[in-house]
Amino acid sequence: MFFVTECFAQESEGLRGIKPPVEFPANYFFLLVIVFLALALGGFFLFRYFYLKKRNKLQAPVVTRPPYAIACERLENLRLKDFPREGKIQEYYVELSDIVRRYLEGEFLIKAPEMTTEEFLRELKQAPSLVASQKSFLREFLDSCDMVKFAKYGPKIDEMENSFLLAKKLIDQTRRTDNGI
Predict the structure, then answer these.
(1) In 3-state terms, what secondary structure has residue 156?
(2) pLDDT digits 0-9 by tens, 129-140
């Protein structure tokens, strides 16, 4: 048989009453520090916003040159370097193809410098930027550059001049005017 005994307070003690809430002394220092930091942070960001806005207005506008002018200048600088006569064939073709690729990037917003030749030509098939004859000029030009850069082909000086003229012709043909191509 089981006997139940009381586990709680004896009947003689009775129930005790609820204790009143404990009072803590009021300390507003921590609250004031938080408010001060929040105001200082907000003031800093407002000052920075208006200061930068004012400073940006005072800066002179950046004048960008058209990609055609940049490409022509770079082609002339390449011609002055006279890489073919010095025997720097690979450097010549690397710089020549970079000029054309950067020109096309600036003119038609095609990320040419970051793409391989095949990726670039595949991208051009879908873009209406160039006509078929210009695309074939570009393919011929890029293939000749790749032959020198990757297959170690050693072209003669007249072939190098032909590649230069091909690049110049491509840039001249794809030049945009103020009202389009």
Answers:
(1) coil
(2) 777 777 787 888
CA distance 61 to 40: 33
Spell out the domain ranges in the chain.
67-173
- Residue 159 to residues 36, 54, 93, 100, 141: CA-CA distances in angstroms? 74, 55, 11, 17, 11
φ, ψ dihedrals at 13, nearest 5°: -75, -40
Residue 83 CA to residue 79 CA, distance in Å, equals: 8
Distance, CA of 165 to CA of 173 (rounded, Å): 12
Query: What's the rounded mean pLDDT across residues 1-26?
Result: 68
Say if CB 79 and CB 179 are below 8 A apart.
no
Determine the residue type at 75.
L
